[in-house]
Write a structure and sequence with these properties.
globular; about 100 residues; single chain; alpha+beta; 4-stranded antiparallel beta sheet; Rossmann fold; 2 helices
């Protein structure tokens, strides 16, 4: 079961598209490196996944719950990350 999913994430500045149609599903204790040239959207993707930046389109799910746009408030970022860590720890105990 994926604990964090990005669905069709796109992000653009006024005239420049940085991300387009990105999809990703992460399971507990999975390590996924992001590689690429400068200014290709790696940091933007991480900020979107953490709820620090709103994508132009797409959605982010934590467990089975869509967390955009509510995670963009500071209080829910902490709650969302704590829930993510709890899910990961529970998954480790059952593995």
């Amino acid at each position: 079961m994926a604990i964090l999913e990005l669905h069709s994430i796109a992000h653009q500045f006024v005239a420049r598209r940085v991300l387009g149609g990105i999809g990703l599903a992460l399971v507990a204790v999975e390590f996924v490196p992001l590689a690429g040239s400068s200014h290709t959207g790696k940091s933007k993707l991480i900020k979107i996944a953490c709820g620090l930046l709103k994508p132009s389109s797409g959605s982010v799910s934590l467990g089975f719950q869509n967390i955009l746009p509510s995670i963009l408030t500071i209080g829910l970022i902490g709650a969302g990350l704590n829930r993510l860590m709890g899910l990961a720890q529970a998954r480790l105990r059952t593995a």
